[in-house]
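As noted in the main text, all predictions were made from sequence alone. Below is one such record, for DUF3618 domain-containing protein.
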Amino acid sequence: MADTDPAELERRIERSRAELARTVDAIADRVSPRNVARRTVARAESNAKEFIFSLGERIGDVVGVSPRPAKLEGESDDLWADEQPSLAPVLIGVGAVLVVGAAVMLWRRRRG
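Prediction:
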């Protein structure tokens, strides 16, 4: 049958309250606007980095230039002396073309 010891019932109730309080705190932390925004920004940043890396690889394949690997902390600069040219000018050029194209499209849309 059921345990009717009042002290045991109080202990169970206190344990249940503590578990419920932890659960409510965890839910509040998870849905906090600040934490949601922080996770969203981190996810967007990760997706942007992945997209830029992928874009750099594809442009490098088209142009025939392999992207430079990232320099690790503690590596000397002379390891990079004989590297191929950087993709930075190509990416800057592609970005400039995209910006000019978008500006022309906006100008035409407003004009017409």
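The chain has a mean pLDDT of 80. DSSP finds three helices and no strands in the chain. These features were considered when defining construct boundaries for the mutagenesis experiments described in Section 2.9.
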